[in-house]
Design a protein that fits this description.
The structure holds three protein chains of three kinds. By secondary structure, chain A is mostly helical. Chain A is built from eight helices and three strands; from the N terminus they run αβααββααααα. In chain A, α6 runs antiparallel to α7. By secondary structure, chain B is of the alpha+beta class. In chain B, 54% of the residues lie in helices and 10% in strands. Chain C has a single domain, classed as Rossmann fold. In chain C, 37% of the residues lie in helices and 25% in strands. Chain C contains eight helices and ten strands. The chains are: A mainly alpha, B alpha+beta, C alpha/beta. Chains in contact: A-C, B-C. The interface between B and C is medium-sized, with 29 and 38 residues. Chain C: This is ABC transporter ATP-binding protein. Chain C: GO terms for molecular function: ATP binding.
Chain lengths: 175, 749, 225
């Protein structure tokens, strides 16, 4: 999760106060990760201001960080555009973890298919949760849930394919 | 549930509605024709069941009636003439008459009355003494065209005639028509020939797109429709089409009805009010046709198992086997062998022949799928290419369905071939009627055999004094040339054979000066005054045979001194006439000599005698043409319905093939092949069977001289034309294929 | 208390063994997903539970009654009154209009026509089908046709809805929409659902899922231990 660039993107349509930014961020993206802490928020905003990607538009007299209204700069827009245009690096992390588990199970003579079945159940359980969530929420939340569902589905397909080819895999790694 | 069925049948969209209409239309054609056949059959039964008062022959010495029945001729039509005298009141009355005519009166049939008004008295009216008292009602007539006259006399006038009998009872039994067996045969043949294609048509119509319908039944089963509910819904669908069709058929019959009255099935028209399928026919049709449709529908549903997941055939039908040809061969053998062994009996056992013929037709239907499969195998072996592969595969997979489409047409061709081969053969023996040199010569015989009149004894000929008066009267008619033939005096009365001159040496004496006036008789040897000639061929009704015996007088004919001047009896009289009016005038004169002429031997020209014989065959030929045409029409409809149905049924695979790049032309050619191939194969076999059936009959009809029978060339044209029409029908169905498989409409739920 | 219970079902088609000892239970109001690869026997299991197939061996109990010993007629009656069906395709009568199709089970049950159509029409707004009542099946989109099928399946108020790959012929967006509407409706009606699918995202709509492999129901928990 690229928090600075996300905040830049939220600032782009209109100038905003820090607490408004946090509220938007949390309601839109928190389900996919963790809610934003105020420390992280203001740290990030300061860094962005220092880098010239945002600037203070105006401030209510009396000072204090949450009295400032921020606006995006030209450099900030360029940063958002660049991030959006560049594809994300595929993250093989989960697959890598599952693969290591399957191989270890096969090498140690434990039931790999039972592990995969259990993993499938866990995946489906999570998919049911996401399905319930996407039905309840506003569209923004639904889309995020869908994203998670498609990823889990991809994992499940990999699990099913692997389960069907465990015998071949066992022969290959024991060679 | 019935209401649900009706609701489903009527609300199921354009395709279902179109199917319903096609079914109804096909059934309507079938029912309309069926009703017409029934109506004609009813008229025929009604007519032959009429009392034959003309046949009265029982004598009663104390009876109230003097009865003298004879037949006369006018313009090629027979006049039934009854001369009658009442001895006592309250005697029986001829049907159709208010009372027996009193002396000096006569009753005439309406047709005769009209003829009397239109004809000079010396050609017709003078034959009937007295004045017309009224017309004869339908009860006494067989046909509105009948020429009948009932003439009243004083008893004394009739008592002297040798033909007169005294009777107490007028016959009420119908005439034992010698031709009725023949007509029964004809009706049976016609009914079978028409009925089978009709049933095929109706069957094809009600089965149309059965597979599409079965899909819908599977869907209904899925939502919990019980098997009985499916049966009801399917039956309602079938019954609705059949009922609409039956009602439409009655409409069609009503449209055809005026034409039926003009069909001279027995050589004369039927009374209009007898031509009806009767109320029971109508009721039966309206009830039986839908009932039959429902039964057929249920039977076809029994063969499939409709589960909620779709339709499965109970069993995959095995390919047809060779045994299917056996019934056909058996039928052919049954039909042919008796005719070959004993040709003379050929026409005598129509019941057996009908049975064999039905077997032949059924055999053709049974053998059809096997033949179709064989031709598909040949096609597969001898051809390459997508279309023929598709067609051969379809034919081999389901030869029954492919054959069903052409079965009606095949029967039509078979029946047509049989009759077309028969009729020319039968007519071949008559074909000289127009060319005989004696065509316009009238012959009348004065020999009356013992059996031909009520009293005992044989009248060998007309006595000289009567003959002289007759000859004098004939001589006054301009254009009439009389040649008297005398019975040789040497052959005494006792030696005369009982059944006429044919059985004896048949010699008659003729004066050369008379014979000279009818050149066709031949020329006398030089210097002869009179010759004795063998004229027995005069009595035949076969002009071809007569011509072969001409001339009667040859150079070696014995010269005789008996030239009729020595009190010889007048045996026969030949009168050449120069036109119809002259002919009728001669007959009018002869009608005064009724007592001396055999009452059933009408004075007719040789041409008329030959025409009578030919007329029957001409009528048959006409009916055959109509029948073959109608059968072809029905079969063509059946073909069109079957093809459209099979196309609609295979809509999905065809569309898929088009989607995957098969050209529509390839599909056209495949469908054309899979239809035309069985059609051509079936037609060839049917024509072969037809000739095989016809050949023995034709040989029996025309023995010896006309051994080789080939259908008339026009028939070959008809069959070719029929085939072309069929191909055209198929081709007309093909655009349907293009439309229903249009790729832009491809859609698979 | 299970509403539908299958014990040790076996079913063969000739030499092909589709089920060998499959057992499951369906609770009232529960949506149960039956997953498994193609040819695993999951559809056969559904057809056996729905009384369309008769198992070679084993028992099916519905509402306390043995299903496998019922006559075809009684099972047909159950299909009409207690079960509803949504298949991948081919379940609607193509020549009929949408409302005709929905009214059909009611008509077959002998309901009066006006009442049947009134009831059928009341389902169209619930499934977002307002205005499509008079369309013929062939004129509907795939998602619309499946929603009509759902209405057709639920119109009789069944206790169990059998759904075999109900979104199998649809794209994922349309499939989600059909599933959402179907699940919402069966929840509102308290109908139990047996949902056969190979699609995990469809199965995720269920309360619980089981997996069928080689004709048997796999008990994942038992084998992990």
């Amino acid at each position: 999760m690229n928090v600075p660039t996300t905040l830049l993107g939220l600032l782009e349509p209109e100038p905003s106060h820090g607490y408004e930014l946090k509220r938007s961020y949390d309601s839109l993206f928190a389900d996919n990760g963790r809610p934003l802490s105020f420390g992280q928020l203001y740290g990030t905003l300061n860094r962005l201001e220092r880098d010239g990607q945002i600037e203070v538009l105006d401030a209510v007299p009396g000072g204090g960080p949450d009295r400032k209204r921020f606006v995006i700069t030209g450099a900030g827009v360029a940063q958002v555009e660049g991030w959006l245009g560049a594809p994300e690096r595929p993250e093989p992390m989960l697959q890598a973890t599952l693969f290591v588990k399957v191989v270890l199970a096969l090498l140690s003579g434990r039931p790999a298919s039972a592990y995969l079945d259990a993993q499938r159940d866990a995946h489906l359980e999570r998919m049911r949760e996401l399905t319930a969530m996407r039905k309840a929420g506003p569209l923004s939340r639904t889309l995020l849930a869908d994203y998670g569902l498609f990823h889990l589905e991809a994992d499940l397909r990999w699990i099913d394919l692997t389960a069907a080819r465990l015998d071949q895999l066992r022969k290959e790694i024991s060679r | 549930m019935i209401r649900v069925g009706i609701h489903l049948a009527l609300r199921s969209g354009r395709e279902a509605l179109a199917r319903l209409l096609v079914t109804a239309l096909s059934v309507a054609i079938g029912v309309g024709l069926l009703l017409s056949v029934l109506a004609m059959y009813h008229a025929y039964r009604d007519t032959i069941a009429k009392p034959c008062w003309q046949c009265t022959a029982t004598t009663d010495a104390n009876g109230p009636l003097l009865w003298s029945y004879s037949e006369d001729e006018f313009g090629g039509r027979t006049i039934d003439r009854l001369d009658v005298a009442t001895l006592k009141p309250d005697g029986p009355v001829v049907p159709g008459l208010p009372a027996m005519p009193s002396a000096g009166q006569y009753y005439a049939s309406p047709a005769l009355a009209a003829l009397l008004r239109a004809t000079p008295a010396d050609e017709l009216g003078d034959r009937f003494p007295g004045t017309m008292a009224g017309t004869i009602g339908a009860a006494g007539l067989q046909s509105p065209d009948d020429l009948v006259v009932v003439i009243g006399h004083r008893p004394a006038e009739l008592a002297a005639s040798p033909h007169t009998l005294r009777t107490a009872a007028i016959q009420t039994a119908p005439r034992g028509l010698s031709t009725s067996a023949f007509y029964q045969f004809g009706f049976a043949l016609g009914a079978v020939a028409l009925l089978v294609p009709l049933l095929v048509l109706i069957g094809n119509a009600t089965r149309m797109a059965a597979a599409r319908r079965e899909e819908r039944y599977a869907a209904i089963r899925l939502v919990g429709g019980e098997r009985s509910q499916i049966n009801v819904i399917a039956s309602v669908d079938a019954v609705l089409g059949a009922l609409l069709g039956a009602l439409g058929g009655i409409g069609l019959y009503a449209a055809l009805r005026p034409l039926l009255g003009h069909i001279p099935l027995l050589g004369f028209r039927f009374f209009d009010d007898t031509i009806t399928p009767t109320v029971w026919g109508f009721v039966g049709t309206v009830l039986a046709v839908p009932a039959a449709a429902a039964v057929a529908c249920l039977v076809s549903l029994r063969r499939v198992r409709i589960s909620p997941l779709g339709v499965t055939r109970r069993v995959t039908p095995p390919p047809p086997r060779f045994w299917r040809v056996l019934p056909l061969l058996a039928g052919l053998a049954l039909f042919t062998i008796p005719l070959v062994i004993a040709p003379a009996d050929g026409r005598g056992t129509p019941g057996f022949a009908v049975l064999a013929l039905v077997l032949v037709m059924t055999g053709l239907m049974i053998a059809g799928p096997w033949l179709t499969m064989m031709s598909a195998r040949l096609l597969a072996r001898w051809t390459v290419g997508g279309s023929s592969l598709l067609a051969a595969r379809r034919l081999a997979d389901n030869p029954r369905a492919s054959f069903r489409a052409v079965s009606g047409l095949m029967l039509a061709v078979m029946v047509g071939t049989t009759l077309a081969a028969l009729v020319p053969a039968a007519l071949a023996s008559q074909d000289t009627t127009r060319t005989s040199p004696l065509r316009d010569v009238l012959r009348v015989g004065f020999f009356v055999g013992d059996q031909e009149k009520p009293g005992p004894g044989t009248i060998p000929g007309l006595p000289p004094e009567k003959a002289a008066t007759l000859l004098a009267k004939v001589a006054t008619i301009p254009g009439a040339v009389a040649v008297p033939l005398y019975r040789p005096a040497r052959t005494g009365q006792a030696e005369l054979p009982a059944d006429g001159p044919l059985a004896g040496d048949g010699g008659v004496d003729v004066r050369c000066s008379d014979a000279h006036r009818l050149p066709a008789l031949g020329a006398c040897p030089a210097g002869a005054g009179a010759v004795r000639m063998d004229a027995s061929a005069m009595y035949t009704d076969n002009l071809r045979a007569l011509n072969e015996y001409l001339p009667f007088i040859r150079s070696d004919s014995p010269v005789t001194a008996e030239d009729g001047s020595g009190g010889q009896l007048l045996s026969d009289l030949l009168v050449g006439v120069d036109g119809p009016a002259t002919l009728e005038r001669v007959r009018t004169v002869l009608s005064g000599y009724r007592d001396d002429i055999d009452s059933f031997e009408m004075p007719m020209t040789f041409g008329e005698v030959g025409d009578v014989r030919a007329r029957l065959f001409l009528e048959i030929q006409r009916i055959v043409t109509v029948l073959a045409g109608v059968t072809l029409l029905v079969a063509g409809c059946g073909l069109a319905v079957a093809i459209s149905g099979s196309l609609v049924e295979r809509k999905r695979p065809f569309t898929l093939m088009r989607v995957t790049g098969t050209g529509v032309g390839t599909l056209y050619r495949a469908v054309l092949l899979e239809t035309v191939l069985p059609l051509v194969a079936a037609t060839a076999v049917a024509a072969g069977v037809g000739v095989t059936v016809a050949y023995p009959i034709a040989r029996a009809l025309a023995p010896g001289r006309h051994g080789v029978v080939l259908p008339h060339p026009s028939y070959a044209l008809t069959v070719t034309g029929g085939l072309l029409v069929s191909v055209a029908i198929i081709a007309a169905c093909l655009p349907v294929l293009g439309r229903i498989t249009a790729t832009e409409k491809a859609r698979f739920e | 208390m299970s509403i539908l219970y299958a014990n040790d079902l076996t079913k063969s088609f000739g030499a092909t063994v589709a089920l060998q000892g499959a057992s499951l239970s369906l609770e009232p109001g529960e949506i149960l997903a039956v997953m498994g690869p193609s040819g695993s026997g999951k559809s056969t299991l559904l057809y056996c539970l729905a009384g369309i197939f008769t198992p070679d061996d084993g028992t099916v109990t519905f509402g306390g009654r043995r299903m496998d010993s019922l006559s075809d007629r009684e099972r047909t009656r159950l299909r009409r009154t207690a079960f509803g069906f949504v298949f991948q395709f081919g379940q609607l009568v193509p020549e009929l209009t949408a409302v005709d199709n929905v009214a059909l089970p009611l008509l077959l049950s002998g309901k009066r026509r006006t009442a049947a159509y009134e009831q059928a029409r009341s389902w169209f707004p619930r499934l977002g089908l307002t205005g499509l009542e008079g369309r013929r099946t062939g004129e509907l989109s795939g998602g619309q046709a499946q929603r009509v099928a759902v209405a057709r399946a639920l119109v009789t108020g069944p206790e169990v809805l059998f759904a075999d790959e109900p979104t199998g012929a649809l794209d994922s967006l349309t499939g989600e929409m059909v599933m959402d509407l179907m699940v919402d409706t069966v929840r509102a009606e308290h109908t139990s659902v047996l949902l056969v699918t190979h699609d995990a995202r469809v199965a995720a709509h269920a309360d619980r899922q089981i997996t069928v492999r080689d004709g048997q129901v796999i008990d994942a928990g038992a084998r992990v231990r």
